[in-house]
Amino acid sequence: MLFAFLLTGFYFTVATRFFQIRYFSLWIRQTLFSGSNPEGTDKEPENSMTRFQALCTSLAATIGTGNIAGVAAAIVAGGPGSLFWMWISAFFGMMTSYAEKLLGHCYRRRREDGSYCGGAMMTMEFGLGSRPMGMLYALLCLPVSFGMGNMVQVNAIAQSAEASLRISPLFTAAVLIPALIFCLKQNSTGIGRLNAVLVPVMSVVYMTGAFLILWIGRRQLPAALDLVRDDIFSWRAISVGVARGVFSNEAGLGTSVIAHAQSDVTEPAEQGMWGILEVFLDTIVMCTVTGLVLLVTGICGTSHDGAVLTMDAFASVFGPFGRHLISLSILLFAFSTLVGWSFFGMECVRYIDSPWLSRIYPVIYIAMILPGCFWPMQTVWRLSDLCNALLAIPNLLSLFLLRKQVIYLTNLYLDSKL
């Protein structure tokens, strides 16, 4: 399955003539420096997310605790060289994400209230003419939202709160349930506004601490990079690094297309560029910083628990405050994933168009907080990984079948801009 992820990204990288490198300045300019309402957005975006809100909503679901604990666990399991292979998988994943978002933009639809709806399931229905394929994808999204999107994240919050602040899991559940109920009552623009605040705040909190550690330990950075270089060609590093990179940014799963389809961007290729940025920020930036912090502090391998490793790394520089900082980061990262996946799940339910499911899904999603606080997560992770693989199959197939449209629209856009 990992080979299919890499092959898809490799194809779009070659077919677009290494778009993510050759046009680096273009996609950076059209994303980070595009402004609040640049040319290429709708004139009346009140009922849709802005491009930044769509990015934050997508990042809210993809960043999660994996960028803190998952990277540490990858280095323990795969060695320092796994970090290099995370970069490789992210490099190709950028173009998979680009293709997903471009197609999602092409086949999105407007609702009666003026808001957009879209996602990989709508690409399958309107791009391939297969509603059953879209229905299958939407149905598979639901168990993934309960597992990876909910229970795994809630468990991380409960464990970190108990370890750092001695807060009982039951109290954690009592706080999370009303907070999630509030978020579920928001429409897409409300969730977009919430994530536009939450994602930058949580990123700044965590990255500030991480960059301080790297600055303090800057003399150890060359040695840390040597560790990565010397371990590149071990099979363990390759397998673990590629797997961690693929599942870190979710490129190939198609789930984040749901958020990007809500954006006010009118040009499909430009929406695809936001997909490139998403993978870049999630893996090239966030995961790299976490990995270097672990290598610079020299504590990787002291524990098999990723969250504990990262806490130890921060505590080695900041003392007890470092543990509290990681606990706060896990809380923000995990809750943002909880909110992001609730939105993805509700959009899939709306696509399925079942009144009964529309009523029962929010209840089940909220109820999953309780077992998430108490149950061991190994089984949930295995089931989530299985659902992820099943989810990727129809999505990667649709990307392959619509590959010529991706290339055509990309070339058309470049001809008009260059």
TrEMBL record:
Transmembrane region(s): 134-152, 164-182, 194-216, 279-304, 324-344, 356-377, 383-402
Pfam families in the cross-refs: Na_Ala_symp (PF01235)
Entry similarity comment: Belongs to the alanine or glycine:cation symporter (AGCS) (TC 2.A.25) family.
NCBIfam families named in the record: agcS
Keywords: Cell membrane, Membrane, Symport, Transmembrane, Transmembrane helix, Transport
Name of the protein in question: Amino acid carrier protein
Subcellular location: Cell membrane
Gene Ontology terms for molecular function: amino acid:sodium symporter activity
Lineage: Bacteria, Bacillati, Bacillota, Clostridia, Lachnospirales
